[in-house]
Structures
1.
Amino acid sequence: MSPFDSTGLSGKADDIDSPIFARATLVSWAQALEDARSVPISEIRTVVEQRLLFEDRSVGAARRVVHVSDPSALPASLWFIGDLHGDLLGLANAWAYIQAQSRVAGCEPFVLFLGDFVDRGVHAHETLLYLFRMIRDNPGRVGVLPGNHDEIAWDTEANRFRSEVNPADYVDGLNAILDRGPSDDEDAARIEVGKLACTFFANRPRAVFLPDGLLVAHAGFPHADLLPTLKAVDDLNAGDCLQDFVWLRISENAPRKRPNRATKGCEFGYENFSEFCTVATQRLGVTTRRMIRGHEHPPSRFATYPNYQRNPVLTINTMCRRMDDESSLRVERFPKACIARHVPDELPCVHQLPIGESEVSAAYYHDATPAEAPAESSGSTEPRLVEPSHPAGGA
Ligand SMILES: [Mn+2]
């Protein structure tokens, strides 16, 4: 099975070269920054109070798990955006591309984020601003599932931000501002947005189950030791289950891994996933057959797993740059940010975004040595849909 949408929405390969696709990938770095910074803080305060996409289908009193059981509740054009880690350029182009694709299909675009907006990138603040702007401008059409890096909190007593990950450069940056004292409006805005983001992420669900059996979460699902505790759908709201949705890591080759509760990020295997699918479907009445997630960062920014045959899994990231701690041998200088389109009864289809190298350099590589700096390429923003091939390795 190919994870790629090789034909486009209308099913014709020549749509790839249409002007619509060309326009979709032309958000410059300067434009992305300008758009992000155009949102007044007062409007963000309203945004974080809103109920987001699918949240009216939240389960139980805790409302941290969403079960969309009615197929008619599924929008015709539903897209997934993966890990961003401060990649504002990836986000702006993903959204432009999704809007253009949806226009072609004649329907409104809906987006579900797979989490990890912050850390390991310098533009986390602007990425959050852009997210809030999207929610403001598209009420009810944007949903968010926080990642482990988004589990941040404001500690009023200590006057500090806290994170569940280490290192946590977004929170560290905010605390550094607090340590030296906010010196201008920009500092104050960063602190304010940080506090609003804490509330925002804390109130979001950790998993969405769609009616065709697709599980959407940042990382995983309740591991083997929790399966006996699952008697009804509301049991998925338990703290350990929520933690597993956000933190578990995938083992590509192991059938089973033992839950290691000494770490939040213990691994699961393909039989573990199939066993969860069986329990969810048969005991909880929540049809579960496949999963889309983020969390791991495959060099090609997406991965499928041949061993996950019965219940397939797709991992995507929407980062268009190589991160500081990624080896230049493994990850290209200009990896293609990936998004995915929901396709009923299948794994979502991956779309690789051809974001211009000059824009990626302007956003992320301005400190690059001349030898590493790429030549300006006029053809770099030329749209291309993906090549139908399988990734090598990954995650
Ligand atoms: Mn991540």
2.
Amino acid sequence: MTDPLSVLLLQPPAIKPAGPPLGLAVLLGHLRRQGVESQALDANLGAYRYLLNPERLAAMAQPASTTSLRRAIKNIARSWTLLTSPAASRSFARYQTAVQHLNTALSAYRGIDGDERVTLGDYRHGGRSEFTLKTLKQFADAEDSTLFAPYFTQELLPAVVACQPKLIALSINYRHQLLPAFELAGMLRRTLPGVKLVAGGGMLTSWREDLEKPSDPLLPFDHLVFGPGEEALLRLAKEEVDDFFLEGSTCLSFEPDFSGLVPDEYLSPEPVLPVTASRGCYWKECLFCPEAVAPTHIYRSCAPAEVPDLLLNLARQWQVRYFHFTDNALPVPVLRALASRRDELAGMSWYGFVRFEKALTDFQLVDQLSAAGCRMLQLGLESGSQTVLDKLGKGTSVKTASAVLNALHQAGITTYVYVMFGIPDETEADRRATLDFLEEHAETIGYLNLAIMNLPHQSELAAGRRPADENGEQKATGGLYLTGAAEQQRRGEARRFIQQELLASPAIRTIVNRTPPLFTSDHAFFFDKPDR
Ligand code: SF4
């Protein structure tokens, strides 16, 4: 008989299965170093493997299925193999086709009522709002179900039962995980009534205000953790606390343990390990950003000098060369530390978010970063209008952004630039300034993310914009962001500008068209750098 496990960490579907989940790996590392018997299980990857099983899909194919679905199902094994091999990055056309096949094959799953939709990046369930507690409770109580239910009952639950955990912690970081996570939690509660169930993660922390309101405890969980879970889980594992709501720790861990989260099983041309040098954001001033208006983490950075060692140790331990820094913004001292160890880091490839810092206009520093393995940097430009940037509290200038893009381009570091439209009070002239900036810098921009701004309820920018009749239930249905007629109009105008004006620009369309479908930034750094 196997020894009972103390803690089982679970990641529920549905998010992109592009790499092991860092949250689970960090918690696992922390618990194991403290002597707590623990294990991590990525039920998100498990669910995609289950749904994309060739035999299961072939059995589901109907004579009435569309030609594209039948073709996708026929190509499923080949597409999965391609997307988990370096060959995927050698031909963008073959890569695109394989992604499309997997995504089309997933469309075979529609759920019991035919109104569910799962893709390689998200999951929707007809008219159900994941931001309504009553709905979540219905899924937990088995009054409603998701298309993941067969995977949960046939594969996941037996695997969990075999682990004999005393405590199970679900990590919920994205809205598309909410319905499946609550359904799974209900199943776990009924199957293992004596086991403590804990939920935590960025999604629940951002939603804290609403979750703390109900007088009923949020069944089926025994505990909810807001913020970083290291200390709370450790104390729960040691049975030192029994409160329903637990505060996250101030003592943070930066050393992940990927045991059980096999890096080369994920859909990625090469195995990529996520890693972070900081939690929270060191800037924290952008008025539209959840990290600023409702931070899920207090800001902490690990000692910059330790970051190159972290990469080198992980590379050795897991035999990987590719890393994704998941920091909201890599701090400049960390970038300098990486640059200073470029000889040891040569041969690695990594990418992550940075701010448009003046330091990145220094040609020597960016050259050294390139030599240290920096392949791609993600940068939030948001707007090409200085007026808008100042209003948003971005703390950057259009001039610096231009100089940074040029320096990175010279150094051979690909850029992934994020812009937003639909910013409150944004004028036609502001939007046009963004378009002009992108066209002028098209040569230096590798990839582009075009978004329409979601305005968090707590943002200063939302003051005076909340619909007068928005009651608690409507607010909960809308989730973390403002809804209502004025919002819809703002978003509609932004959509029109993107479709009719921005994408009418051949230079901008070229950049948008080379973005890897669905996996976007997760896979962008595998493809050839834009012409330079
Ligand atoms: S720098 Fe990025 S993470 Fe930080 S507050 Fe601004 S948008 Fe948010």
